[in-house]
Amino acid sequence: MVLQELADYITYKLIGLTPSSHLGKAVNFFIYDTTKIFILLTILIFTISFIRTYIPPHKVRKTLEKRHEYTGNIAAALVGIITPFCSCSAVPLFIGFVEAGVPLGATFSFLISSPMINEVAIILLLGLVGWEITSIYIISGLIISIIGGILIGKLKLENQLEDYVYETLEKMKKLGNLRAEIPDPTLKERYIIAKNETKDILRRVAPYIIIAIAIGGWIHGYVPQDFLIEYAGQRNILAVPVAVLIGVPLYSNAAGTIPLISALIEKGMATGTALALMMSITALSLPEMIILRKVMKPKLLGLFISILAISIIITGYFFNFIIG
């Protein structure tokens, strides 16, 4: 609420734009989301980095390596549900999992489910669209997360991580036994480690996030809601893939997307198409893909996008068929 009031004050008072203008809406969205994302990222990256100083990566890796691959994917997808973060905020957790040696397939199951389904989204969905659509959304999101992670895990694409991540992983494996002999850092040292890692990650991704949010802000300000109904309505056989394509640059978290989805369903958009739009906004957002490019090589990123997009499209068509 405070951030929205700040964005309103800067946009409409200091800059002098009007709330009804396209430019005003775009600028307001940019200011609000940029501020929100960087606050969330800073808090989350620092917190995770600090906690990781208490958890030796080699122990995490050994514990998870003993799990059956399928149960690991299920567990990772379920963990994603209880982390109410947007797609961009889930990426630092993903990086931490990879660097700790968690199997790649399981990390992808987490990466898909974390922004797509969480307790905030579930509560809002129940209130706006009822338990039937909410149940459909949760089940389909879990299925996509688990299957997507299993497929990527089967392909053994660890070498498609960027070199610095892969080198860190290999180094951790080789030095795992030595790490146990290193004295635990002091509280001050943990703080310094977390602070430096936070600065480093933010410095590398900040320009790309700002560009992506600017694109999303332009679309929010200049693309009318009627456009979505026209090109992703019930009569268009290509409505589901069109909705997915439209949803990619429309960055938002699940909580911010649900009111829009509810309005689109009320205006006549098919349920499956609306759910596909919501999934693409939350799980295939442009800022997330830009951040992930810093971790993955193009082949792995392209495969992730393709599997997720195809899964979302199939889910949308399926639920359009059974629900309408």
From TrEMBL:
Subcellular location per the Swiss-Prot or TrEMBL entry: Cell membrane
Chain ranges passing through the membrane: 37-55, 75-98, 104-129, 136-155, 205-223, 235-252, 272-291, 303-323
Keywords, alphabetical: Cell membrane, Membrane, Transmembrane, Transmembrane helix
InterPro entries listed in its UniProt record: DUF318 (IPR005524), UPF0718_permease (IPR053166)
Topological type in the membrane: Multi-pass membrane protein
Keyword Membrane: yes
Transmembrane helix is among the record's keywords: yes
Family as reported in the entry's similarity comment: Belongs to the UPF0718 family.
Protein name from the UniProt record: Membrane protein
Source species: Methanothermobacter tenebrarum
